[in-house]
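Lay summary. Proteins are chains of building blocks that fold into shapes, and those shapes determine what they do. In this project we predict the shape from the chain. Here is one chain we studied, written as its sequence of building blocks.
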Amino acid sequence: MILRRFARGRPTWLDQVIEAGARRLVAVARASEVDELAVIGHSAGSVIASALMARALELDPELGRRGPRLVLLTLGSVMPAVALHPAARRMREIVRRLAIEPTLAWIDCQSRKDVMNFPDFDPVEGIGVHVGPQRCNPLIWLVRFKEMISPEQYRAFTWNLFRVHYQYIRAGDRPAPYDYVLLVGGPVAIAEWARRHQELTLAFIQNGIFGGDGSRHEIIVGADP
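And here is the predicted shape, written in a compact code that computers can read:
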């Protein structure tokens, strides 16, 4: 498995992808006037997104200290399945680097309904990475898909395991605190939305506005289609 080889520090084609993505992120951060730079990874893509972000911080230690806000958004991540193996030292070092980076807002979205992710699991301590008081990441957001899907559709939805796993990056059919489209395309900073999603969702439903006009640039790393 390609992710297993990567996590253990063996050469794979992912190295070129991560290097190219990291250099692109650094270049955009230096040249862009956007408010926020977001790297987004769903499922297995969370492994690649995390590695890309860690590599970008290695290339430019000032990344996030000036210019746009820096965000890593991992959705339904399977990273622990890769990082828990004793030989996956490379993956654990990536997580260690991200866990202590104060300029990065890492948000890890999990769901108990999704059997393909690791709900109620700490992606740092849970894989044996201990960083002590330096730790500032990630913010874990436990997403409730039941809030996003109407009762009429939920029964069929809940037994379609791949459909459930992809709900992180799909719109629901009713307003809910977690809304991927609003999260990555709305006027509120991603980290602020994650911390204040209940009140912000209510404000948006009632008024249709948040009172912001921020812009952002995303690099999205998805799972297999």
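What the prediction tells us: The longest strand covers residues 36-42.
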